[in-house]
Amino acid sequence: MRTTRIAVLGAAALAAGGVIAASASAGVPARHGAPVVNPAQFNHPQDNPYFPLEPGTVSFYRGTDEGERLHERVTVTGHTKDIQGVTTTVVRDVLRRADGSLAEKTHDWYAADNDGNVWYFGENTATYDKHGHVDSREGSWQAGVHGAVAGTIMPANPKPTDAYRQEFYGGHAEDQAWIVQRHAKTSVPYGRVHDVVRSFEWTRLEPHVMSVKFYAPGLGIVREKDVAGGSEAFELVAVRHQ
Fold first, then answer.
1. 187 pLDDT above the threshold of 50
2. Can you say whether residue 40 is alpha, beta or left, with left for phi > 0 and alpha for psi between -120 and 50 degrees?
3. Whole-angstrom distance between the N-terminal and C-terminal Cα of the chain?
């Protein structure tokens, strides 16, 4: 508990000061924290075990938010989207309430570079009310459009003290991350996982909310939970390959 509290306070201090740039270990050039996209860096992409992008992989999660039970299905599709000269992989993320009604649907765009860093190029997202009507599209963004820039979703060799922007579209999408542990262990409904990367993640748009995420090799995110300012929590239940 003491370690977690110190880590949260440290991350909060970074967020407040805005001193976040692309991680040096990620090998991503930065300008005021904004990565510079060079398509030549993506012509021989290398897999990143902590954020796999194998088409046909479907991950199932269950969780809660504000007392409501939720189910999430994340699919690495075989579809691609060209953004700023880079071929990105389309990942479909569908969130449903316990009664089966659609709560949120998102298409995310990711690409691994030649060193194995996974970049985040944007998302097309929508939340839905209980009647199936679109409630909001806030948070949607695409690198290169209206000043939005790509970020790093997972460095090639993640290690403690790595800090980086995951996305940036001023006033709409400003997620940031700070890796605090490399060789963690955790248990989720999927099973016991080892050599886990643990990170704290937050956004300036919700300065009082802090979450912790656990990334396992070959699986990606296996657990995430708000540790301050929120109540969201999800765990990996199963993985299938279509």
1. yes
2. alpha
3. 40
